[in-house]
Amino acid sequence: MTYLTSRVHIVGIGGAGMSGIARVLLARGIEVSGSDAKDSRRLQALKPLGAKVYVGHNENQLEVSGSLPSCVVVSTAINSENPEVQKATQLGIPVISRATALAELLIGATTISVAGTHGKTTTTSMVTVILQNAGKDPSFVIGSEMNESGSNAHQGSGELFVVEADESDGTFLVLPTTFAIVTNVEADHLNYWESLAAIEQAFVDFMVKTKSNGGAAIVCGDDPGAKEAAKRAEKLGVKVITYGQGGENDAVLTLLPSGSVGSQFTIRFREQTHGPIKLLVPGVHNALNATAALIAALEQGCSSKDCVAGLEGFTGTHRRFEFRGEINGVRVFDDYAHHPTEIDAVLRAARTVVGSGRVLAAFQAHHYYRTALFSKEFGQALGLADFVVVLEVFAPGETPIPGASGSTMANNVPLAPEQVVFEPSWSQVAGHLTNQAQPGDIIMTLGAGDIGMMCPEILALLDSK
Length: 465
What we know:
Elements: E1 7-11, H1 16-27, E2 31-36, H2 41-46, E3 52-55, E4 71-74, H3 83-91, E5 95-97, H4 98-105, E6 110-115, H5 120-133, E7 139-141, E8 153-154, E9 160-164, E10 179-182, H6 196-212, E11 216-220, H7 224-235, E12 240-244, E13 251-256, E14 263-269, E15 272-279, H8 284-299, H9 304-312, E16 322-327, E17 330-335, H10 340-354, E18 359-363, H11 368-382, E19 387-390, H12 406-411, E20 420-422, H13 426-436, E21 442-446, H14 455-464
Parallel strand pairs: 1-2, 1-4, 2-3, 4-5, 6-9, 6-10, 7-9, 10-11, 11-12, 12-13, 17-21, 18-19, 18-21, 19-20
Antiparallel strand pairs: 7-8, 13-14, 14-15, 16-17
Helix pairs in contact: 1-4, 5-8, 5-9, 6-7, 8-9, 10-11, 13-14
């Protein structure tokens, strides 16, 4: 059934994924209206493109100039009690998920879907930048804004469509995927999935979708979960291309001394060495993400030269090791990391950036269930910093779980007591960090909640020292 016809109303239109869909719909000449609980730069950015947007939810917002939408698209954060959803249901207007809408946009395209517990946004952005550098002009929908374009979505002129595929609620299985990138498979989003085994099976199913579309699965062979899922998919007839530092992979990443760049490496794939590649964004995890992106681009006919140039020009995405400013010799970065593996990778990358200085980190956990499951692991990962401030858990509307708290997590950080602070008061966090900061240090705000909003305050306090 075709849903995206005359006008589409999007509830939660200010979200990263939803605003991206809105941008593509508008570029295709479809009228768009929508609402979000609060105002945001993404919401405001849709207005000049022609969208009718509202702050707050109201059933009367479904009707624009006397007409009703062909469908209502909702994000996973929107429940059936939303007044606009209730009104649409009463009127018989189809209410569909973000994934269903995205799947319809992908019809007829050669789709590169990027999935994994970590690294999706960066890898999707890298694939997009390489393809753009090669003159392919792909369409894309990404979970954050690319630094190069400032946008999270675009309607391109070619047949290629690059999408960030969200596994958190299983909706990535709806997408008509031609090439599947799997960066890693770990236990997460267990509020939806029953177990790690269920998550692994979903990734097998995700890879199997490439078989009927004549594509391939590009999988990190260094990651145990992804490797196991790939083996199972391969037995089902899926073409699998593995990548990683291990010599048994189809594409082998070799790290080189990086000097002043984020990282430097070569990639050996199909008897050809690509690089050396000088990547501006730091960390082994980003070198691996770049390897996946290069393979995906080569599979689309891009040259090695274009792949290397595209990666070397990639400057990152919003909230992924994002540089927010430098005052008095102290650099401030922000990152979306919200899982122990991500915290570990980001802080290890920070070590390569800081030189002889120290890493000062503030972390805001996201969701009680994740905090309950990984409190010890979070503590261990945060121990890679020199000084840590742990905030209370960001979990609006959720029922607290005993023991799933910032205080418990702070007690699990293996640093001296004077190096770890549990701070439940938002207004005090920036002061803890700036009081510790010295020239040469870096400050990092970490988390999937609203902690990134603290960076201007940190910079202001540094400036007043």
